[in-house]
Amino acid sequence: MGYGFWSIIAIICAVWVIYDVHTKQKKFSDTKKLVWTILAVLPGLNILVAILYYFIEKAK
After folding, report:
1. Phi, psi at residue 59, to the nearest 5°?
2. Above 90 in pLDDT, residue 59?
3. How confident is the model at residue 48 (pLDDT cuts 50, 70, 90)?
4. pTM confidence score
5. CA distances (Å), 32 to each of 5, 29, 52, in order?
6. Domain that holds residue 28
7. H helices then E strands: how many in the chain?
8. Distances from the Cα of 36 to the Cα of 1, 4, 5, 58, angstroms
9. Structural domain total, the chain
């Protein structure tokens, strides 16, 4: 599979993290939301950040 496939997956992961942080996580402070948002848009780390977000925040 080429870079195109992984790019689409990375974009989906970034959008999911950003959407979830800003709409569903009302208890998060603004700083925590900002940190997760910045991490989600870092090139090359989108998928890893989504996995970490799921296990650290969503699994609570």
Report:
1. -80, -5
2. no
3. very high
4. 0.88
5. 30, 5, 14
6. 3-58
7. 3, 0
8. 28, 24, 23, 13
9. 1
